[in-house]
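Chain X:
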Amino acid sequence: MKHVQRSKLVSLIVVVAILALAVVVRPTAIQTLQAAALPVPLAAPPAGATLPFVEVQAEDAATNGVVIGPDRFYPGLATEAIGRRAVTLNSAGQYVEFTVPRASNSIVMRYSIPDNATGTGLDATISLSINGAIQPKLALTSRYGWIYGGYPFNNNPGDARPHHFYDEVHRQVAPLAAGAKVRIYIGSGDTAPSYTIDLMDFEQVAPALTQPAGSLSLTADFGADPSGVADSTAATQTAVNTASSQGKVLWVPPGTYKINTQILINNVTIRGAGMWHSTFNFITSFGNNEGFYGNYAPNPSTNVHLSDFAIFGNVITRVDNDQINGIGGAFNNSTIERLWIEHTKCGLWLDGPFDNLKVSQMRIRNQNADGVNFHKGVTNSSFTNSHFRNTGDDAMAMWSDSNGTTIANRNNTFAFNTIEMPVLANGIALYGGTDNSVTDNYIADQQAEGGGIHVGNRFSPVTAVAGTTTIARNVVVRAGSRDYYNGWNFGTGALWFFALDQDMTGIINVEDNQFIDSNYEAIHFIGNNVRNVNFNRNQIIGAGTYAIEIRAAGSATFNNTTVSGLGRGSIFSCRSDFTIIKGTGNGAWIDAAPVCPAPYPEPIYGPVVTPTPLPTATPCPSSVCPPTSTPLPTATSTPPPTATNTPTPIPGTVVRAVNAGGGASGNWIADAYFNTGSQFADTSTAINTTGYLDPNIAPQAVYQNVRWAPAFNYTIPGLTAGASYTVLLHWAELSFQTAGARKFNVAINGTPVLSGFDVYAAAGFKRAIGKSFTATANSSGQIVVAFSQGGADNPFISGIEIISSSGVTPIPPTPTTVPPTIQPTVTPLPGQTPYGGTARSVPGTIQAEDFDNGGEGVAYHDNDAVNNGGQGRTTAVDVETTSDSGGGQNVGWMASGEWLEYTVNVQTAGTYTLRARVASNTGGGNFRVEFGGIDKTGSVAVATTGGWQNWVDITRNVTLSAGTQVLRFYVINSGFNLNYLQLSSGGNSTNLALSKPISASSTNAPFAASNAVDGNASTYWESINNAFPQSLTVDLGASANVSKVVLKLPPGWSARSQTLAISGSADNATYSSIVGAASYAFAPGSANTVTITFAATSRRYIRLTVSANTGWAAAQIAEFEVY
């Protein structure tokens, strides 16, 4: 038995892995797309567990700390946060203040603090107040987070690559009313170098249960110590044996019981006072010394019933030979319910053969390996209505292992479970087995070496996947990852099939699932032969690369499978022996020709289409999710990494290589092109360049010298204007040996590419790391790389490479003298004249088709020489007739790297509102707007609008100098049409709330409060369900005279009314009414826009309160504009 888990993990040498990314969609309100967005809109599946708590994200709370993320780069603090964002507190007085969403009497906080230098753990406190009243501090530790290196991982910081950063602390508190304020802050005596807060759970904990009649008491009858001081191991084992022999219930009164080894159970019922009240604290961290264990086959335990207590372990390092799980062994005809299991190796590792085990309403968190594994010969069993968070391997797995049995896993079910952040492997995995099902689960933020749901003929199963396997009504969000260990240069899918040990020929029905914001492809076939897979009524809503990736032979049938928001295309396949059988109702995507690019492309992420919420007609049945249910589970199975010391270099020709802060070295020129900063060097020891963190290894001298300053930039000249390059940035941390000590931001040509980047957290001390980005040289032939502070200390850079993939002739090294910063040209190029002879006036409207005269490369750049729309002038710009109000023409077929220029005359210097009129059937597009060669908007995302002629406005504020200058509209990512640009100024023309800090009383992620101030009416904020009133509060940054609020919902939504009130404050403490509560109608005929005017008043904070919504059981706002 001791080698069972190791055999699985050794086989994982061939596992597929993918970077997990993105934003959390809560299973309590999964939503569906508008009919206009997909040809076959589906009712959203009622996926996930019925949870007794509300999860509130720190980034949506009030804070003066640093919001980190979103980030999909593994590993990293933001990447491993739920929803890929969190808040870091660095100095005394910084805080996160949560608004309690509903009546509660307990809190659970997910957090991370830095580890100590030896990896043995750092203990610290953080301060807590409730409604301003100081509470006892919360005790925190890094002992159970922060593991290093590759599988099987360790606690040696010298192995770098730290991950699994987070842990949780929980406490029962005095009753909290909805709207109460819970503040976490750095106070006197809080000594951790930094604190990263991810979220807080709020729960109304029921009173302790009472002792059942006729039961035996663990304390009164057997003398166990409920204080947790004295050891209770012997008393507990005696009590279990006695209750079993007498056929009585063993009652566990409220308290904490210290245990130092396994408790063996058979034919016994153990019942606690509730998972918040009765706790077994296992104190041993190694060996076979934790958990409740049944007998093993061939004589499994039977008639075991466990309920209503917690199992807290002390496992800090994963050792696969150790049986140190929360629950282990085999259980016939048994039940396990309402247990909280934390800090064990696995939550439940259950070894068959056995039959008829029912597990439900579990809470499994912070494990070193699987949450649950039905391992070999498990039949007619189920695991339902449970919550998993931060498991160290597959959150849920069925492994039909052939080791020691010929009985396959059969007729088992995983249903109505919520899974968040499995940091390794998969959300749910089926390894072989017959007639098993995975239904109605919610899986989010899978991290590495796997996907959301996996079906594999792997790890020597008794049989290949056989019979009928059902995968139905699941919601999978931000899943899939890159396999660093095996060196695969592609990502695995959110749902992936791997025919490794045998062909996969059993019937697999994939029905009514949603795959949302997949990190790479949504669906993935790999291995030998995969056949008899049937897809019916599924939705793919955003994918970083493709809808389907094929790396196997075989076939699959698709019916009513709808697709939107693809980063790279519909189908990837380099094979001719896999057939897509085209049924009905799929849409045009299925007819796209497969592509096979080399190298494999990096994913492109765009805004995910957010569906209109619809009431679910088929909720979790009461037999599975009773009203008092409390789900919770944990994890175990991890592939061994095979890290390579020879990473694949970035292809292309290096045209610039700058040794920042240092002298010339080989092909690297001495430091040049910077505007300010200081130099630092440390040549005392060599930089570790092994592994795969930097794709192009630089000379030691590059890593040993750096340039730093609070803010600085490099302007790299001499490039081909409009040409695309790879910008590769190199670092090695020479000073700090603690995560969080240095964080900074990086932007390229004005577009942010890194936020709160922590070199030590990503790579370790004196270890090389590189980050590559695609950038286009501006009209002056420059790429500008800007560095700024991002939360701690100062930014730095070791080296910069500019790489051309198009055969551009390398430019000879320039002298080491530093040239002055080159200013962009603000006037038109020779031969460039305004269309019609007169510069467009600002303020005013600029029609997209009225770009300047001058031709290709002067007034515009189009990737092909054909006007695909056939309208307008005889140029390569793609112009078509628009059906937008007012008629005329629009520019379409916009492709990445294309641009249009317009000569404009800005009448008066000042701040203007830029309104871009756009339409998109796919989403995923991005653009920026430059004036005089300077990026004024940053990257602006375009979500789907439901059609190529369904027009919406996206607004940004831009500050302009007066006079004649050139406006360039630059397409970063394709996927949208442009009708016109409009610039307005004066009066109420400036939206004071745009991109300002905003907080919400609650959030149904991923529909974050920030969506309401992003200038995009296709994204929106949504509160939790059935908890009115709810509110949004925007900080304008300073007191301002305001007299109008404009509220928007996505333009394609159906009509509804919301009851709204507006109040304001100067200090965010005392609010007074501006507009009393009244019902306002949002109607498609008025673009779902409501305008509320009032007497001018001076306020800094504006609060919108929503107390009713006829269209959905939550507050919903797409844009909250203040004028």
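Chain Y:
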Amino acid sequence: MMKNILIIAGVVFCGMYLPLCRAEASHSNKIRVLRSDSDGAVLELRLSGFQTETTEYEGESYQSITAPDTVQSDQPGKPRMPVCGTLLGVPAVDGVSLQIIDASFKTVPGYRLLPAPEWKVSGNNMDEPDIEKAFIMDQDIYHTSAFYPEAIAGIGYTGYLRDQAVAQVQFYPVQYNPVEGVVRLYRRILVKVTWNARQVAPSPRRAPGTGRAYEETLKNHLLNYDALQRPASSPEISSPDATIESQELLEKSSGGTSLKIGVTEDGIYKLTYNDLDAAGLKLNSIDPRTIIVSNKGVEIPVHLQGEDDGTFDTNDYLLFYGIANKDIYTTKNIYWLTVGTGTGKRMTAVDGTLSGNAAIPEYFPTTLHAEVDSEYWQTMPNGGSEDHWFWDKQLTAPSLQSAQPEGTNTVSKNYFLSLNHISTENATAEVRVRLKGRTSVQSVNPDHHTKIYLNDVKVDDQTWDGQQIYDHKVTVLQSALLEGTNTVRLELPGDTGAKEVDQVFMNWIEIDYLDTYVAEQDKLLFGAPSNGTFQFEVTGFGKNTVMVFDVTDPVSPSRITHTNVPKSGNTYTLQFEGDAQEGTQYLALASSQFKSPSSIERDQPSSWKSTSNKADYLIITHEDFYSSAQKLANYRSGAGWKVAVIKVGDIYDEFNYGIFNPQAIRDFLTYAYNHWAAPAPSYVLLVGDACQDFRDLYKTGTLNYVPSQNIETNILGETPSDNWFVQVSGDDILPDMYIGRISVQTKPDAANIVDKIISYEKNPPAEPWNKNALFVADDDDISFEEMSEQLVGLLPGSYKANKVYVSTYSSGNPTQDIINYINKGSLLTNYSGHGAVNQWGLWANNKKAILNASGITSLDNTNKLTMVTTANCLNGYFAGTNPQKSVAEQFHLLKGKGAIAVWAPTALSYTSGHRLLFNELYKNFFQYNLHGLGAATTNAKISAYAKSKTWGELVETFVLFGDPLTRLGIPEEVSLSVDMPNGGEIIPAGSIYTIQWTASQDMVKFTLKYSLNKGKTWKNIAKDVTGASYEWQTPGTKKSKNQCLVRVMGYDNSGKKKAKDVSDAVFTIDAAL
């Protein structure tokens, strides 16, 4: 449960509203376009109905101001004030500017506005996160005698919605001078937005075709849509990149077999005849000299023993130098083995014959890097691209009341590092310790004091401040290092004044030192003490089968030949001569130390990086769930959709050289959007669960079937985002496709959800339960009930709103009532309140969860699936490091029961943002007839972000668990009627006649046909007609036809046929005289 720790306690919301202007019967606060042309647009905002809410805190009165059709700014520390905004279509994202032409306002004294609260998460437990809420005033604003914000309007952001450049215009209709205590309330703001299309360079983007569904999204959100003169339908466009191949370099052979070789450690890898044969490479039919090995698009030289005879014999083998992948996603690198038409690259043989004249070095410089990733700091402030994984839990300083003798009452942690065969040379070493400040105390600077000890000797003592990266760096004598185990101790005296709030993380330790030429476990990675020619002698090998490679450049290793390996006592010594430079790296090893790949598998070729592909709907699935994904694809194809089912492994192969990385999925979607045949895909479904512990460092065994991407959010830090995948047009967060996810880990779960989707659509919700909606509100804050009431007000009059408001339960059981309402049938179920990953709030009456796994699994609503929406925190946190299921997944995974889909957040956010977002969603469902789940949820996010740039994180972190093509089972009120002709008309042949019809709002395109034989055969008049009339040129005829009919067929914005009608009776086309 999310706990509110109010740092300023005792705030009481009085709920008193003081009108600042004459009460009106209704308020029509609107942004209007007064003029729009190729150079710009003039916008007018008119507001009325400002209201004040008074808050008492520590005997002082504070106010917050609201206005209809506005939202609160909610920037932590800054005054909370109403804002509103809109989107405009513009020629390009650059060169857009705004000028304030006119404004009228009223100045009102006697105001003290509270700042928006700041929220921080304590700890990493997302099951019961501790949330600290603080009102911390931005001193630069609150101590300045000036009106904030300085500008009452501006360009909030620019970006792209598909091929259309957009600009958000943000209005700030209230200004506040905190020193004077006055506000300005703006009743009217007139602005001019300019872009001068003649001077702004057009976007270099290719126009891939918007698609019918997204064209409706543009129409819904761009205030100046009618002036944009967008094409009625997207053109078919041939790609300028038609020569792009499925893989640019070497990963695929020319029609032959390719092997994917997995590597997780650095070293020399050996592939035997049996290894390659078992993987499916037909060695008997190939010339081994044509074998090619590549990595990340670059061919690497290999050593293929025995290839000179042109056959791969059973005793032959291949050696290559492989390195692990080094990023946050995986250590598994992929090397591709293919058979080409020419000779593959081979390692250069460098002669290592001893001349007898070269110096024999005794030592070489090297670095020990010690790092263990075992503790994840998810909520790191301003983490960005920083490392979020640390050696262990934070070290916390003791709470000291006064200065104490050194070494008493301190907190410390020892770290053990092994150094073997170190040099006894009289030299220096360097020790580096990287720390990260876990805490920051504003009133104390510096607030960290850390000491470093090496083998019980203090070597560094520093104070530093805040949540920064801090590197201890100290030079010591080489003699300070011990042969064998060395101990580095981190110590926190706790004497800064920050007391126990002085907390730090250990990240890694490095030691630069001099090593000697002694093999460890029959191998050694070494260099030279300086530039020059040396006779290297490496002792300590157990066998004489020793090879040495120059691996200075991992993509161009060479093999040292003509080496000596004489026996010296019970061991062997490797001898060779080489020209070494600073940074030269040799790897010497016995044949027993050759590594085996972590995996060898035959590639199944795919061709998704091809401009010949075309689809409306993309299903990206893990291989385990391919059959279920294909079943859904077949069902969609039967309804007329062009569907492509793509295995996620094929995406890694074609877009990241076979290496696991979420970026490959976005690169694929970007390619499909830009280069597949128009119109570009509009719908994406991900099939498979994800885990943000990409490398399984917590050892939970949770697989990344189809990963999500971590983004940085203000409160939670690193947060999973599926929206990130569909940000494929422009450098912005606006979604360019409708995306959903089926978060499953097993084949039965995947099959179950696909069956639920198909069954729900074939047998849609029926009366009377399809007009029931359930609204659940937490009891912690009245705003949760207010939000629910706002949504209830958007239901059509024929709907029944069932309410479970927990604050009203002095007795009884709200959990059981929720279950009962869903079991009886509820088209929609909405929860407003606090939440954690696996539950809804806590019921204050008994401190039990309002709803959790036990309640969800007890549901028995077979054939009455509900759509669940949660205006809370974390209910959609499906990719956490803990393998538990989120509330969204629990609802979705119930076999034949639970939810058809869930819309829930992966992050922490504010009720004011949720209020705006969900208001837009319910408008989409019940006012704008957007019943497709992908379209409705995506349009809600775009709408909320258009009104206030503050709510960008809602766009990024709300996830649709379900198929974006699924339509909410709202009772269809479809009507289509041909009004003219309606029978009996006599229309001259070859003349222009106006066909007229009336249709319900969900139909946006129409196909018209006519019949000359009372409906036995039909001929086309026109397709994709918009509006409610069409000028038809009747066909010429030598003989009058008196058995004529007209038929009109209507389609929704997804292209689905909704209704058809035929003229009431026959009419006559009169022959020309």
